Amino acid sequence: MPKPDYVAILLVLVEHRVDFVVVGGVGAVLQGAPIMTFDLDIVHSTEAANIERLAAALESLDAYYRMQPELKIKPQASHLASPGHQLLMTRHGPLDLLGAIGLGHAYGELIQKAIAVKIIAGVSVPVLELSSLITIKEETAGEKDRAVLPILRQTLRERG
Amino acid sequence: METAPPSDALYSEDGIDLTMIRWMLSLTPAERLEVLQAAVNSILDIREQNAKT
User: Helices B18-26 and A143-159, interaxial angle, to 10°?
Assistant: First the structure.
């Protein structure tokens, strides 16, 4: 597995003008939560023009499905337009493209609850605000989320 | 003369390490991402070393 370079992946998405929101563990870390995660989770807009830009970004990232890495199956536009989850490997590490999260929260809703977070000088990316991230994780909390939720809630309290 | 350790609570009521949260909050978002990336890379290095032995 290539060592993750979250900034490199995000920069490729920004360069290709992809509409997306960072969610999940990396979104929480960016907002100060001391948790560990290996993959970058984003929710993307499924509008046709955005799917084209996303597909170009994924091509540039050499993305393929990590379920069967030996086959190097590339995601198709129809996959990217679905509300499902595309779990990919890229040359900069794992990237999860989520059509929707929780109980059907998609890009159009999440971008309203996102804040701009600077990742390098002059470049910011939209990140789902921590309180919304917590609310959505609470909706469908599996064991992994249940373990992390107390840390996220405490981070929110400490941030004030 | 020994200095007493800080008396502020180190853990929340449900056992969360508050010092880690406060330290992370003191960093910029870019620095937080670097911390995560360094931690992930360290774990992957260890896994790789163990896979070789």
Answer: 60
CA distance B1 to chain A (A): 33
Nearest to A27 by CA among A109, A111, A143: A111
| Spatial separation of the C-alpha atoms in residues B36 and B41, rounded to whole Å | 9
B33, B39, B41 ranked by CB distance to A30: nearest = B33
| pTM score of the predicted model | 0.93
Asked whether the beta carbons of residue A4 and residue B37 sit closer than 8 angstroms, the reply is yes
Q: Which residues contact A52 (CB under 8 A, 6 or more apart)?
A: A77
Domain boundaries along the sequence of chain B: 28-53
What ipTM, to 2 d.p.?
0.91
Residue A114 parent element (H or E) = strand A114-120
Residue at token pair 């919304």: A132
Q: Is the CATH number 3.30.460.40 carried by domain A6-154?
A: yes
